[in-house]
Amino acid sequence: MASYYKAPTSNYWSTTLNGAINDSDDSIVLTSASGLQSPGVIVVNRQDGSGNNTPSAREVISYTGISTNTLTGCTRNFDNSTARSHADGSLVETMPFVGMWNDLSDGVDAALNSDGSGLHITATASIATAIIEGATVQTLAVPSLASIAQADIPNLDGSDITTDTIGLTSLASMAHIHYNAAKGTITGDSDGATVTFDMDVSNIHTVTLGGNRTLAVSNVDVGQAFVIRLVQDGTGSRTVTWFSTIKWPSGTAPTLSTAASDVDSFGFICTSSGNYDGYIIGQGLS
After folding, report:
1. 175 near 194, Cβ under 8 Å?
2. Lower Cβ count inside 10 Å, N or C end of the chain?
3. What is the spatial distance between Cα 136 and Cα 72, in angstroms, rounded to a whole number?
């Protein structure tokens, strides 16, 4: 895989070595690394102190990290240069190198179509070619249904998404693709004078009534279905005032079971903002 190196934050960046280095040091201390970014590439001793070019003394060095003024993870004799010893105070600069340009060019060529447009992805023989403009798939060429070996389809469980593998070997087998069941969680709500069931938390709520309570719901979306499970405490005979507006069967709100520890379950569908159809799922469960 090609490596893409970062340029410094300003043009014509340079500094000097803070201490001599030998031809195998992989940590190099600079007088200042301010403006350098990692990973990156430097050249040491391109010129001497008088500004004369010194081809027999220079070396190109790559690095992967910067710790204060120290370059770490250095690769010596980078880009076909020769690893050398360098004296304290030697000139250090940054500039584009042949290897950097070639790596970048190879990466761009691999990503773009031959005319420079779009994003070209060549996958396995199973899926021949996909051409993507931004995030939109334009062409997906599949030579045969048999070449689609498997399809990974996530469960519809927002709390724990897993992946199943489904073999597709014929058109008939594609008709039988299905998702796993959406498995809800039961949220136990705190008892209080007003009990509010948050429908962003889950679609199934349960609460043990410690007195006569007012019930409320929040964050309900139109079309959302949910269940409220009411449990009598050890005393029993607790009553509730329902949230509005609920259409009950025969237009009458249900009376709760009264025995201690009895359970009543009710289902609802939000038909429009603030309006619900209410259903009695079961009462007097004990």
Report:
1. no
2. N
3. 41
Q: Tell me the pTM.
A: 0.42
Report how far residue 95's alpha carbon sits from residue 15's, in angstroms, rounded to the nearest whole number: 13
Cα 46 from Cα 274, distance rounded (Å): 75
Which fold is adopted by the domain 186-285? Jelly Rolls (2.60.120)
CB-CB contact of 9 with 39 (8 Å): no
pLDDT of residue 155: 46
Q: Between the CA of residue 10 and those of 60, 94, 98, 104, 220, what are the distances in Å?
A: 19, 10, 20, 20, 53
> pLDDT class for 100, splitting at 50, 70, 90?
confident
- Pseudo-torsion of CA 266, 269, 275, 280, nearest 10°? -20
CATH 2.60.120 residue ranges for the chain: 186-285
